[in-house]
């Protein structure tokens, strides 16, 4: 579902008053209302549109460089609605790139932003399992087990961790 009019951000306004009741000052804080929108999505919604834009619109060299895969390969995206009638994710990516260029975001910074988005998607594929020998030592630790290969950490996971 896409609600173009939805409010993803909230504002907290703190007013300070003098003893006589007049306003002394104010502080406005903005905060994200949907922090869980990446990890917990309703089956009838999509995650942030930028993820779908990136997967549908980036060119092959960038796709390979930042280790992307189809939506079905990312746990954060594959458990909810993937496509929405009337939405063009490829076109959305083109508009996103155009907007980034218009406000002066360099190609290098854009690439880094897309790397971060890819890393977020890959983090969703990491699973954790407590090792039995840690239970005996009473250590509160875990080891990373990736669902992407049977060999433990994948190259992408290794980059995220280090």
Model description:
By secondary structure, the protein is an alpha+beta fold. Helices cover 36% and strands 17% of the residues. It is built from 6 helices and 4 strands; from the N terminus they run E-E-H-H-H-H-E-H-E-H. It has helices spanning 49-57, 60-65, 89-102, 107-123, 132-137, 155-161, and strands spanning 9-17, 23-32, 126-129, 143-146. A two-stranded antiparallel sheet has the order 1-2. Strands 3-4 form a two-stranded antiparallel ribbon. The longest helix has 17 residues, at 107-123. The protein is extended and about 65 Å long. The relative contact order is 0.12.
Distance between the termini: 36 Å
Can you tell me the overall shape?
extended
Q: Segments where pLDDT lies below 50 for 5+ residues? A: 1-6, 149-154, 156-162
Q: What helical percentage do the residues reach?
A: 25-40%
How is the largest sheet built, in terms of strand order? 1-2
- Estimated share of beta-strand residues: 15-25%
Q: How many strand segments? A: 4
What count of helical segments does DSSP give? 6
The assigned structural class equals: alpha+beta
Order of helices and strands: EEHHHHEHEH
Rg over CA atoms: 21 Å
Average predicted confidence as pLDDT: 78
Largest sheet: 2 strands, antiparallel
